[in-house]
Design goal:
single chain; alpha+beta; 2 domains; globular; disordered N terminus; disordered C terminus
């Protein structure tokens, strides 16, 4: 990542949806209050009468921290069927700084590829969608219920984008990002060949307002905070009038401060991590076409032949020769994944 991209200013924030919530309120609010919602079991608690309710958000965050710490030293262990050698590798997860570095490279590759393909015709829009994080009486909403409401408009928003940009060459990359208390909003980076104007995206905002409970109209006025338009021709050396290019913005601010380890992130970011972990929602969503451009330079497939290693178990200490817990089920993994394991989470 270039020093220019690291130090430049952010694009405009969306208007805050709901009042700022205190640290104590965030810690105490139930993770969910909706029947039928199915987060990870670590986000629930069973009462004496047998009913299951959402845990407090603070407790879910602590459980995420424990899970993350356990993941740090554990390795998957595979065996070479020809030599019998054992090899351990860390599978990674989406909360590591390495994952954010990977995503930054992919988003940069997306915009760089489209700029090379479309040149000065590349225009970008950042569309920001929010939902209120507070109830009518000012108390905080359960974070999982808020997130589900925020995402409930996603299908309608994509259909509206398709109608608005029908007949055009375009791609998108959507990212869920934490706000100041840990409640998220959605940034949709839209990359278009040819001129676009803010007013074209009004139907996209309307689709969100119609289909997302808690999406207030006052937080979605059609201004630069909700839809920001820029041209590639105005972008120099990865920055746009002192601001990061859209691809850099989308990636470098996903899930907290760049290059900061997960357990060193601010509390609100760690609450967001816990929310994404327990809900098991994806926090970035590229269009099909965008995925094809998101291959960073120097990440080509190895030319040497692959060997299928057999999965045999896990090593909690990272020393498979002396600390191996064998697992049933088997399976195979390629040489490339042993040497270059992909992040997931």
């Amino acid at each position: 990542m270039s020093e220019t991209a690291r130090s430049s200013s952010r694009l405009p924030y969306a208007k805050r949806a709901g009042a700022e919530i205190s640290e104590e309120e965030c810690q105490r609010v139930r993770f969910t209050e909706r029947a039928g919602t199915e987060p990870r079991k670590e986000a629930t608690v069973e009462r004496d009468d047998g009913s299951v309710v959402g845990s407090r958000w603070g407790m879910v965050t602590r459980r995420w921290r424990w899970w993350f710490e356990d993941q740090q030293g554990t390795q998957a262990v595979v065996q070479n069927p020809e030599s019998g050698d054992l090899k351990g590798f860390t599978t990674g997860n989406r909360f590591t700084s390495q994952y954010r570095e990977m995503l930054f490279a992919k988003a940069q590759s997306l915009e760089r590829s489209l700029r090379q393909k479309w040149g000065r015709l590349l225009h970008t829009a950042m569309v920001t969608l929010t939902a209120t994080s507070t109830r009518d009486d000012g108390r905080p909403r359960p974070p999982l219920d808020h997130l589900n409401d925020l995402l409930s408009s996603w299908s309608a928003v994509r259909r509206a984008l398709n109608r608005v940009l029908d007949g055009r060459d375009w791609e998108y990359l959507a990212i869920i990002e934490p706000q100041g208390s840990g409640y998220p909003h959605i940034h949709i980076g839209v990359f278009v060949k040819g001129v676009i104007v803010r007013e074209q995206f009004a139907p996209v905002i309307e689709a969100h307002l119609r289909n997302s409970d808690g999406a207030g109209r006052e937080a979605h006025e059609l201004d630069d905070d909700t839809v920001s338009i820029h041209r590639a021709a105005d972008c120099r050396n990865g920055t746009l009038d002192g601001l990061e290019s859209l691809g850099a913005y989308l990636a470098s601010y996903i899930g907290g401060e760049y290059e900061t380890e997960a357990l060193e992130q601010p509390r609100y970011v760690q609450r967001f991590y816990a929310l994404m972990w327990a809900s098991q929602h994806r926090w970035w969503r590229p269009s099909d076409g965008a995925q094809q451009y998101m291959q960073p330079e120097g990440d080509e497939e190895d030319e040497e032949p692959e060997v299928e290693w057999s999965f045999v178990g896990i090593s909690p200490s990272g020393d498979p020769e002396n600390d191996l817990i064998e697992c049933e089920g088997g399976g195979t993994v390629s040489t490339r994944k042993v040497t270059h394991p992909p992040p997931h989470g």
